[in-house]
Amino acid sequence: TAALTAGLERIPDQLGYLVISEDGVLASAGELENDEHTAGVMMQMVRTASRFRLSGSADPPFKRMSILDDFVYTVTVSGQKVFVVKRQHNQQEPISV
C-alpha cells in the first residue's frame, strides 16, 4: 500500500484519501478512512462518467473529475485504480476593481 499512497499524503490541504478498485477499497486515510459509502458513490460516478465517450474518440472520457462543495473531491483514474482525495475548498471572493 505504501507505493499506492506515497504521493497522496503530500498533497497540500489534503483531508483524506481513498484508493479504490473494482474489488473495493485498497487504501484509505484521514477523513475518508474506511469510508465504504463514499467509495461506493465515487465508483458509481466514475462508472457513469465512463459511459460518455465522444464519438470516434479512443481517449478515455475523462482523466480527472472534481466535485465541489465545502470540500473538493478530486477523482483520478489510473490503470485499474480510482484515486480520491478530499481537500479543503477555499473559495475566493471575486476581486472588485
Automatic annotation (TrEMBL):
The keyword NAD does not apply. One of its GO terms (biological process) is positive regulation of TOR signaling. GO terms for cellular component: lysosome; Ragulator complex. GO terms for molecular function: guanyl-nucleotide exchange factor activity. Keywords: Lysosome. It comes from the Eukaryota. The keyword Nucleotide-binding does not apply. It is found in: Lysosome. Belongs to the LAMTOR4 family. As part of the Ragulator complex it is involved in amino acid sensing and activation of mTORC1, a signaling complex promoting cell growth in response to growth factors, energy levels, and amino acids. Activated by amino acids through a mechanism involving the lysosomal V-ATPase, the Ragulator plays a dual role for the small GTPases Rag (RagA/RRAGA, RagB/RRAGB, RagC/RRAGC and/or RagD/RRAGD): it (1) acts as a guanine nucleotide exchange factor (GEF), activating the small GTPases Rag and (2) mediates recruitment of Rag GTPases to the lysosome membrane. This is Ragulator complex protein LAMTOR4. It comes from Maylandia zebra. The lineage of its organism: Eukaryota, Metazoa, Chordata, Craniata, Vertebrata.
